[in-house]
Specification:
alpha/beta; FAD/NAD(P)-binding domain; seven-stranded mixed beta sheet; five-stranded parallel beta sheet; binds flavin-adenine dinucleotide
């Protein structure tokens, strides 16, 4: 039988593996980690807390994927109404702020509305994300809210970003919506995600556990060399493996340097691809009513994290009875904002700021505190990306490495997109065998 090797064991790799079920091929998934799941892994602590690798919920509208995931946990999932909130200079506001300003100082609302109204008559050329923000919301709002958030979350100025990733992610209100949201409390949500599903037990990773039983996987197998001429993979543990077709979901800046004979211009292009990393600070507290919000956004520059989430609100089984949990995300990037210190250095600053924003109280009993690192978190859509990606993907296409997933396609993929991209890559790999 011919063999298709798949690099990775995350959503994209499982999409590929599932697409190949029923084909007369051997399929083996390889991962450098000692666990499967990639970005969708969950960490279950002996004290009864479950934290995902960054907040993960399923909001896919794809009914096929919904059914797949429901079946993967035998129908045991929570269906939850999404609650999102914003923190700005001590104010807590529903999401998105642009239609929920009620409660902000009158001066602030007046400036936002004045600017918004002027700007709506004065649309200018959009060369970057900052221009887009100013056109959409007016300069005052842009500079005081999303520009600051972008610098924290995307680790760079919105001037350095393109606009092709925005889609429904940023809500563009009418003047009437802005006015209504300023004059009265919010009544309805305009967020593009209104609800989500989440496994009842075991964290998001439970979606993958049944799948993992039916797939050949080799964990602790870090690919260090790919010889496409001999179709040979070499792993850090000394093992070598042949393949007839190859699918890869590993991050492009990791993949390219491992390919024997990759030309210098392709290596340089892979190096120009920017991605944020994230320090996750997980805190378990002996109090469940920390916040009603599943996700909270923080705009202020002097608050170390840009988002927090509440794992015990995704599923009550994510924390022991009577306890609550909060996960804070602090972003960095090799290209724009390198990590200052070790992940553990962020634990105390995060706990200090959780108290400043009112999620924790001084007398709260903290029963768990830990830091974890995400090396690759969000693709940064900077102006280098389109050309660098064209060069890298062109090279991979030429040598027959079928890329997929958030970090193989280098796109703003959610789990369902990653899964589907794995299916597409598997089809291309099958084509390579013909
Ligand atoms: C903070 C955060 C929150 C998110 N929240 C959501 C959400 O709420 N809902 C949602 O749908 N999506 C969410 N996403 C997106 C989602 O995580 C991704 O779309 C998806 O998990 C990516 O899967 P993947 O298989 O493409 O990549 P990964 O899961 O990263 O898989 C790549 C695999 O390659 C392995 N690997 C790397 N290098 C090597 C090597 N040299 N040799 C062998 N193996 C290697 C890695 O260990 C990893 O297992 C979120 C992402 C982040 C970062």
């Amino acid at each position: 039988m011919k063999k298709i090797a798949v690099l990775g064991t995350g959503m994209a790799a499982f999409g590929a593996a599932h697409r190949l079920v029923g084909s007369p091929v051997d399929v083996v998934l390889y991962d450098k980690a000692s666990f499967f799941g990639g970005q969708t892994v969950s960490f279950r602590s002996p004290s009864g807390f479950t934290f995902d690798k960054g907040p993960h919920v399923s909001f896919t509208k794809d009914e096929r994927i919904q059914a797949l995931l429901a079946d993967a946990v035998d129908g045991r999932f929570e269906t939850v109404q999404y609650k999102l909130e914003n923190h700005w200079k001590g104010h807590r506001l529903p999401h998105p702020v642009q239609t929920n300003m009620h409660g902000l100082p009158v001066d602030v609302m007046a400036k936002v509305i004045d600017d918004f109204a002027r700007q709506s008559l004065l649309q200018t050329d959009v060369r970057n994300y900052e221009d887009w923000l100013v056109n959409a919301y007016g300069r005052y709002f842009a500079e005081n809210f999303p520009v600051q958030y972008t610098e924290k979350y995307h680790t760079t100025s919105p001037r350095n970003l393109t606009t092709d990733w925005i889609g429904p992610r940023m809500y563009r209100p009418s003047l009437e919506e802005v006015l209504r949201g300023a004059l009265a409390p919010a009544t309805s949500s305009v967020h593009y995600i209104t609800g989500f599903r989440y496994p009842s037990r075991g964290g998001f990773m439970s979606y993958l556990e049944k799948w993992a039983r039916d797939v050949a996987m080799k964990l602790s197998h870090e690919v260090v060399r790919i010889d496409t001429k001999r179709a040979l993979l070499t792993f850090a543990n000394g093992v070598q493996a042949h393949y007839d077709a190859l699918v890869s979901s590993i991050p492009l800046p990791e993949l390219v340097p491992r390919i024997a004979g990759a030309p210098d211009d392709v290596r340089a292009a892979a190096d120009r691809l920017a991605c944020s990393g994230c320090v996750l600070v997980n805190v378990g507290v002996q109090r469940p009513d920390l916040t009603p919000a599943h996700i909270s956004y923080y705009y202020d520059r002097d608050i170390v994290f840009s988002r927090t989430s509440s794992p015990h609100l995704m599923s009550p089984h994510n924390a022991p009875p009577g306890c609550g949990a909060v996960q804070a995300e602090v972003y960095f990037s090799k290209k724009y904002l390198p990590l200052a210190g070790s992940p553990a250095d962020y634990v105390q600053p995060v706990i200090r700021d959780l108290k400043r924003v009112g999620l924790l109280r001084e007398d709260d009993r903290i029963v768990l505190e830990e830091a974890r690192l995400i090396d690759y978190a969000n693709i940064i859509f900077d102006h280098d990306r389109p050309e660098a990606l064209r060069i890298v993907h062109g090279f991979l296409d030429d040598i027959g490495i079928r890329h997929c997933g958030r970090y193989g396609d280098w796109a703003y993929y959610w789990t369902d997109d990653s899964y589907r991209s794995g299916e597409v890559a598997a089809e291309r790999a099958l084509g390579d065998l013909r």
